[in-house]
Amino acid sequence: MTSVRVSSNASHLGQDIAIRQFQLLADEPTDLGGNDTAPTPFEFVLAGLGACKAITVKMYAARKGWELAHVSVDCTLEKVESSQVIQANLHLRGTLTVEQRQRLLEIADRCPVHKLLTAEVQIHTVLSPER
Q1: What pLDDT is recorded for position 84?
Q2: How much is the pLDDT for 50?
Q3: Which Pfam families does this UniProt record tie to the protein (predicted)?
């Protein structure tokens, strides 16, 4: 099971995020009432998706012995009519054939975070006792 803890901090909308041994911050931009001191929750979702795609592609290429020198992923989120649309632009550098590049594009869409975001997900929010 994966878990994180998010707690409000002294900033107006700022949040402290604890993930294993890592400490992060989240906030909102000033036009949404935040102090713009950290990435937004949506930006963290996009970062998780991009990182997962890049890691998955690197692992696959390494397992195949392909010469992938560098991978980066640019992710955007845009509201289009009544839908939220995420676009992930995959950038690959290395000595790769057209077929290998196409296969890595397919593999990127098989990363666990992509699967999570495109699957039917249930979220159960419950009220915990005060601490």
Answers
A1: 94
A2: 98
A3: OsmC
